[in-house]
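for the recovery benchmark. tokens below, seq after
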């Protein structure tokens, strides 16, 4: 029997929400379940409802609720008697879930059942590591996870999914969906930083810092270059690596909003990535003997930066629509140049989305992205020079000259541009 994608999504959401609630409950002294039990409960609920639909019978859902009630009462007996803390209901929950999975193997899609069974097995096997992670997670990082849940699971679903405003280009749901994407990429980089630690090394410092925030990385290393002697060269290299890692963000963003446009949009960007990577490799040969400790990173899951990005993206959407109507492609390039000084993500997402919808020619889209990237590099070099001093500016001028020249050459000479 075929199972539609909505059911698969339901299982994924149940797993995510269960992990979220379980993570919070894991940190409380008085609890019935933790980071493993709540995902099992959520999957149990979805599986009960799905089996009820497949059998065209509603009895399984209330029966499952009755089973859960019995398990909760049994799990709380020790606490109700005033004895030690409850040992939880993970084992009992797993047994119930295995029963439903057995039924689902016959009535539903076998591959989905196998995937769910594997997920449950992993949850059960990773007990020590998951408990250790949940209990040692800093309170600030837990709050950041909850803020990301607010951004993605609470705000996003209530936004209207239709266009408003000037030129009918502002869709609140799609704008905020891209905010979730950008914050998610930043959180991924922050998670890598937390796993690797401060002594990440020169290359990882630049890559991870660029994924979290290339601008913040630039400011941090510029200040470090001014305060510490002999680090201007390594600071310039990390700033270039962070700027180069912007291409990774851009590739992910294009793949999400306009996957069909990847063959048309990526080749010139890949060429620039290759040139920047070679420049980074050459620079690394000169500074590899210097040790580098990554500055403390700030968790990117904040509501205010998300609101700022949403506003900036909305302004760029309207500006591109107006520029295209009154000035053609040249107007779009001006918008890309101006917006690139502060942010590359917004112009990348907006032009890729327009190209994917057939509103913008692919050549115009990737040209706008390249212009924004070059503008952003110039902006970072200027800010770093002001904050870090002449020595840093001199190194940046040498390192940034190659990718900037390559970008200009791509704009002028790339076939089909």
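predicted aa per position
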């Amino acid at each position: 029997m075929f199972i539609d994608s909505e059911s698969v999504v339901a299982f994924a959401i149940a797993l995510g929400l269960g992990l979220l609630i379980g993570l919070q409950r894991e940190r409380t002294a008085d609890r019935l379940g933790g980071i493993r039990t709540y995902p099992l409960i959520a999957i149990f609920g979805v599986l009960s409802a799905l089996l009820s639909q497949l059998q065209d019978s509603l009895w399984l859902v209330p029966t499952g609720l009755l089973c859960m009630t019995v398990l909760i009462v049994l799990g709380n007996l020790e606490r109700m008697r005033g004895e030690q803390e409850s040992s939880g209901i993970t084992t009992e929950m797993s047994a119930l879930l295995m029963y439903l999975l057995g039924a689902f193997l016959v009535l539903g899609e076998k591959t989905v059942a196998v995937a769910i069974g594997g997920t449950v097995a992993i949850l059960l096997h990773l007990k020590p590591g998951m408990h250790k992670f949940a209990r040692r997670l800093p309170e600030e990082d837990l709050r950041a996870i909850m803020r990301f849940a607010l951004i993605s699971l609470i705000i996003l679903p209530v936004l209207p999914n239709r266009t408003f405003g000037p030129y009918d280009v502002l869709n609140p749901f799609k704008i905020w969906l891209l905010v979730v994407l950008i914050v998610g990429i930043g959180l991924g980089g922050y998670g890598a930083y937390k796993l690797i630690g401060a002594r990440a090394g020169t290359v990882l410092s630049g890559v991870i810092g660029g994924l979290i925030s290339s601008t913040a990385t630039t400011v941090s290393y510029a200040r470090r270059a001014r305060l510490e002697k002999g680090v201007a060269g390594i600071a310039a290299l990390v700033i270039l690596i962070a700027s180069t890692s912007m291409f990774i963000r851009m590739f992910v963003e294009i793949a999400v909003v306009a996957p069909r446009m990847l063959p048309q949009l990526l080749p010139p960007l890949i060429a620039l990535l290759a040139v920047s990577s070679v420049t980074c490799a050459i620079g690394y040969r000169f500074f590899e003997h210097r040790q580098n400790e990554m500055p403390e990173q700030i968790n990117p899951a904040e509501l205010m930066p998300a609101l700022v990005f949403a506003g900036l993206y909305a302004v760029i959407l309207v500006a591109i629509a107006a520029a295209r109507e009154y000035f053609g492609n040249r107007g779009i390039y001006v918008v890309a140049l101006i917006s690139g000084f502060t942010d590359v993500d917004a112009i990348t997402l907006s032009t890729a989305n327009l190209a994917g919808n057939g509103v913008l020619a692919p050549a115009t889209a990737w040209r706008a992205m390249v212009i924004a990237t070059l503008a952003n590099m110039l902006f970072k070099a200027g800010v770093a020079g002001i904050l870090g001093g002449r020595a840093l500016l001199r190194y940046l001028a040498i390192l940034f000259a190659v990718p900037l020249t390559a970008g200009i050459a791509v704009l002028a000479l790339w076939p089909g541009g």
